[in-house]
Amino acid sequence: MYDDGMDLRVLQAFIRVAELGSFGRAAAVLNQTQPTVSRQMAALERELGAVLFSRHRYGVTLSPAGSLFRDRALQALRGLDQAKAELVAQVEQPSGTVSLGLPPSLLSVLSGPVVDRFSKTYPRVMLHVYEAISQGLEELMRSGEADVAVLMADRKVLRNVALSPLAVEPLMLVGPPGAALDPAKPVAIETLAGLPIVSYRPPNHLRLVTEAALRKRKLDFNLAIELETLPLMIELMARGAGYGVLPPSALARHRGRVATAPLRDLSVTWTLAVNRSRAQRPAVRALADMIRAQADELIAEGAWSAAKRGTRR
User: Fold this and answer.
1) Is residue 44 within 8 Å of residue 16, measured between CB atoms?
2) pLDDT in tens, 107-125
């Protein structure tokens, strides 16, 4: 490795000579004279006590010692570039575009507040928001279209995506307003047996959890209506068309329209997903940090009803 006091410009000149195989061509690229570059390389060889170049009539080639030093020099320069980029990122006001995927269930509880707060805090960032249920958001993260997303659970392995839990919510049995359900009185999953169920299409996580819980007890999943949107699901349950399983956050804007009761031993984990390739971009990092902070604040204040903080990995 090179001495700490070595001039960075000499190191960069050495890399150019090694790349171009000529003191003259390197001097032209560096906007220096050939004698200046030749003196720099001679001084470098004296400092290292090694011959770095084999000189011939057509230019120069690296000696074995020169090849070894080139590899170490490139590592050092990349390290310096990375350190500079990280320092700039720390003080840089985020700008550019960032894409965020959010589930309909968190519209009132988390999505609206965090989007509003982020856009006001970082006016130079163009925030592109996708809204979809979890399997759609997983696909957006898998394809790289979304930089950050809030997913329901982390049951799938997503390549190049960092996952961390945000919050845990109990799952609720939801039915028509006249149903004998009390939000203060948990009910067993067996209560669903025989009821007409309104549910998302598979492979939706809520659908899978509900089916698995019934199957474990050797009970039937009595599907009445299969759909893809939360507003229609709640509208149908309010009209008496069936029952469903949802987290409390999905019902924040619909209190009084439907009856609810917690389901024993059933919960959902909301998970923050961040594209690893873009995680250190200032705008992406700022958005992920704000979502975590917003979730923690809402839970601490009791504004995210029934939710508990997820265990961070």
Assistant:
1) no
2) 888 999 999 999 999 998 9
